[in-house]
Amino acid sequence: MLKERFFWIGLIIVVCSMIGNHLYFQSKQLTLPIFLKHYYETQVYEDGNQLQFYYLNNKENPVDVSYVSIDGVLLNPVDVPKFPTSYDENYRPNIEQNFTHHTLESVKFRFPEYAIPVKVGSDDVWTFNNMKVTFTNGKTLDVNIGEVRVYGKPPENEALNNTYSSSSNQNFSQWYAAATKPLTIEGISSPFSDQIGTDLFIKLFAGPDITSQDALNRFSQVPEWYNDEFLSDVHLEDLEGSSLNEELFPIHLNESDFIKLYMYFNPESSYIFDFYITVYGTTGDGEPFEYAVPINASNAPYLTEDDVNKLIEERMGGLNK
Amino acid sequence: MDKIFQKIFWGYIIISFDIHIFIDILIDPLGYFMIYKGIKQLVKDFPIANKSKIVSFGLIFYSIPSVILDNTLEWNWYYTIFSFIDLLLVFYIFQLIISIAKAADEFAFEKRAFWTGTVYFINTFIGLFISSFVPNLPVSNTLYFITLLMLIAALILEIMFFVLIWRVRKLYVPINE
Questions:
Q1: Is the distance from CB of A183 to CB of A281 less than 8 angstroms?
Q2: For residue B88, is it within any domain?
Q3: pLDDT tens digits, residue range B89-146?
Q4: Which has more pLDDT, A213 or A37?
Q5: Does any CB of chain A come closer than 8 Å to the CB of residue B74?
Q6: What is the mean pLDDT of residues B36-63?
Q7: What is the mean pLDDT of residues B141-155?
Q8: pLDDT above 90 for B18
Q9: Which of A22, A29, B26, B165 is 20 to 30 A from B49 in CA distance terms?
Q10: Which tens digits make up the pLDDT trace of A174-186?
Q11: Measured between alpha carbons, how far is A178 from A181 in angstroms, rounded to an integer?
Q12: Is B173 contained in some domain?
């Protein structure tokens, strides 16, 4: 005879496990989405440039961004086309990555000239750090999204002639340029160096004064994450060049001398970059010049489950608080 | 015996197939009612049938909301409890079948019913235990594979249970129908 006792023991174990898992699942739910930090520089266009913002959402019962208000400017998200043929019930067109309890999603906004406080061709800059985001569940959240600067004018780029640039993969890009006239480079500045710390690592190789790697190494300071493991992950050799530092400058370039920049991005960073670093100095005629080198690793951040947990821990001081 | 287990068998068929045309046209309360009617006739000769009688009677009413509801998330707990009570009924019917086989002196059949039931419940509880972890586990192919295996095993065992009910009809036990 089947013993009824075993049935009840089995059922009790299953019920306990269901309740335990349900409580754990609940503890992992975000009350509202968490936005990542974005460091963007862009310029205004008449019909607007699109900027993409990333946030962590609950996988179960996700909410959508309904609209945002930035310094009183109201913006609706740009519609993402949906494939009606998808059979996956969890399918959402703006999902970038899936995790156990969460998804990384993105939302795009267009910033047309008529809506924002900066005009095409002007010297104005519109800077914002916060967005008031209203979600489809009616809740509004004032979130820090990093920093966005919208310029009226495109950046300067006459003193150098960009001959080659590529971003061969997500965590690396390179940029070569030749001087169009004799130049003295006095420095290279990054607009968000305080905020992003060492997550962006720039190596510089410039001639003809600096000719050997030894000379470059003397000043070089390499962030911890720039190691053999990182290099093998991005399939790169340790390229020649020194980390950016003041001792390197000034660098004198004759006409058609080369400067190379290698830009590495910390793979564990949850920041999203799309901005310009500025090469500045004086030309042979004593005129100051600036040249903007685009930095972007923004196309899609790549997070791991650990990164997600760390982010939630950082932002919420634990779960569900 | 033949008529009694035919009722129970068709009752289970009605419950197992959900054909939704606006509502579930093979309505579950009707299935449980047929099972209840069948079991009721056995209570006099097999006192153990009393338990399954009570449970099937309860399920006639508990299953009423499922007629109009689709299997939606908001009613998760309703369906979870439903499946537990239904499982209890299956357990009592297994016990009933074993008792009948014993009364009919069909030792081989009794043994078969016992082992089918044992494997049925081990598989069901392991399956439920694993699936309770699914919302908290990272999505992986291994998990899909295990879930698929458990589902196939559950389907085979369900069919074996139906076959058992169908076969009990032919056992000869003198009862006052």
A1: yes
A2: yes
A3: 999 999 999 999 998 888 999 999 999 999 999 999 999 999 899 888 887 888 889 8
A4: A37
A5: no
A6: 92
A7: 90
A8: no
A9: B26
A10: 787 778 888 888 8
A11: 9
A12: no
Q: Do B128 and A99 touch (CB under 8 A)?
A: no
- Is B28 part of a structural domain of the chain? yes
Helix residue spans in chain A (DSSP H): 4-27, 193-196, 213-217, 228-233, 305-316
Q: Which one of B136, B141, B157 would you mutate to disrupt binding with A, by most A Cβ within 10 Å of its Cβ?
A: B136
Please report the DSSP string for A25-63 in residue order.
HHHT--SS-EEPEEEEEEE-BSS-EEEEEEEEEESSS--
Q: Where are the domains of chain A?
A: 34-153, 160-296
Is the CB of residue A114 less than 8 Å away from at least one CB of chain B? no
Q: Do domains A34-153 and A160-296 have the same CATH topology?
A: yes
* Separation between Cα atoms, residue A185 and residue A257, nearest integer Å: 12
Distances in Å between the Cα of B108 and the Cα atoms of A250, B70, B102, B112 are 96, 42, 10, 6
Q: Does B129 touch chain A (CB under 8 A)?
A: yes
Return the higher-pLDDT residue of A272 and B36. Answer: B36
Q: Which residue of A has its CA nearest to B74?
A: A61
Q: Between residues 78 and 107 of chain B, which touch chain A (CB distance below 8 Å)? A: 80, 84, 87-88, 91, 94-95, 98-99
Q: Do B136 and A24 lie within an 8 Å CB cutoff?
A: yes
Select from 2.60.40, 3.40.50, 1.10.150, 1.10.3470 the CATH code of A34-153.
Answer: 2.60.40
- Please give the tally of structural domains in chain B: 1
Distance spanning both ends of chain A, measured CA to CA: 51
Range of the domain at B94: 2-168
| Window A:260-319, CB contacts with B under 8 Å | 305
Which fold would CATH assign to domain A160-296? Immunoglobulin-like (2.60.40)
Q: Is residue B110 part of a domain?
A: yes
Q: Which of A3, A7, A89 to mutate to test the interface with B (most CBs of B within 10 A)?
A: A7
Contact A310, B143 (CB under 8 A): no
The upper half-sphere exposure of residue B50, i.e. CA atoms within 13 Å in the direction of its Cβ, equals 5
Q: Do A2 and B135 touch (CB under 8 A)?
A: no
